[in-house]
Structures are given as structure tokens and as C-alpha cells.
């Protein structure tokens, strides 16, 4: 197989769109033969791989076979320095989705892109995702209210900075990222008592 192809170069008038780093649209013109495939990448390089693959698809004239790259992410609220900050967290670190028509040329183009370690599939043949699996992932990415991202972990010592237990030192015993709540074991009257607090009421020591 060769990384080069005789496919004509993309006309300059063709629309090529890039939305966000986690969702790269190479060619908005869909093709019924295209399927979604899962590609394994080095963790932390997912967005860079998506951008690089977009550039390579354009350079080699394969935008009629490679359409989209998607790094599944979800919006969360991170508590940092006592403030709420929206962040997008990768749902599947080390993986990205590629919508493409699988040929020897597109397989090699994706496989030889810097940061890619391989396709996910049975044996050496990539296995396309079922349409309902892709829809589930996309729905999960776009669901309404963002959940909270905890900046600490169970068993960690923290300081309560707000409320009736302010300045108490305790140990995290439970985290509810969906509600933005944390349960802290605080020593009161010589015994450990669980206290439920908002993420904003707790700080790292």
C-alpha cells in the first residue's frame, strides 16, 4: 500500500470547514458509504491527531473519502481557586472517531498519521461503529447541564473554606460530580462525622 493516491486534488472552491479542535470537519458533503471508525492515539494527542489528519487528507486529495474526526468530550464545571470554570473533558482519553470510506489508501493514511497507534477492530481489520453507538456518543456530548469536575479524590485531606465548618480539616469520603457535592469526614466531639458540602466550600490543603 502507498501513502500516495491518484485521486484528483481538492478543487479550491470546495468548502473545507474546521469547527472546534475536538470536532474537525474535512468535507461537509456526506457519503452513504462512509462509516465511523475508532482510532487509538497517544493519550493527550487526540486533538492534534485530528488536525494533522485533516491536513493530510487535504494534501493527498482524499477529502472525498475522509469526512470528519471527532474527539468525544463533555462539558464540565471545574472548581479552581474558588471559582467555577467550564472545561471540556475527554470521554475516552486516547481515542478518536473518524468518519471515512475505508480503502487501502485511507487506512494507510490514518494509520501512518503521527500520534496514531492503530485502529480498533477484530484482528487487522478495522470494525466500524454501529450507527446507534455513534448517536449515543453524540447525544452524551451534547446533553444539557454540565456536570462538575472534582479537583480532589477520595481519601484526600481538604480544608473547608465556607459555611459553619469553615477552617475545619477533613478527609474526602465521597464525591458526587453530577451534583457538585463532596462528603467530608470532619472530627467533631472526638468522632468523625460526614458533612456534605458544595465543591466551592472545599479547598485543597
UniProtKB/TrEMBL annotation:
Residues 1-20 are annotated as: Disordered. GO terms for biological process: DNA-templated transcription elongation; DNA-templated transcription termination; regulation of DNA-templated transcription elongation; transcription antitermination. InterPro entries: KOW, NGN, NGN-like_dom, NGN_dom_sf, NusG-like, Rib_uL2_dom2, Transcrpt_antiterm_NusG, Transcrpt_antiterm_NusG_bac_CS. Gene3D superfamilies: 2.30.30.30, NusG, N-terminal domain (3.30.70.940). The keyword Chaperone does not apply. One of its GO terms (cellular component) is cytosol. Residues 33-141 form the NusG-like N-terminal domain. Pfam families: KOW (PF00467), NusG (PF02357). Keywords: Transcription, Transcription antitermination, Transcription regulation, Transcription termination. The keyword Cytoplasm does not apply. Residues 151-178 form the KOW domain. Participates in transcription elongation, termination and antitermination. This is Transcription termination/antitermination protein NusG. It comes from Candidatus Cerribacteria bacterium 'Amazon FNV 2010 28 9'.
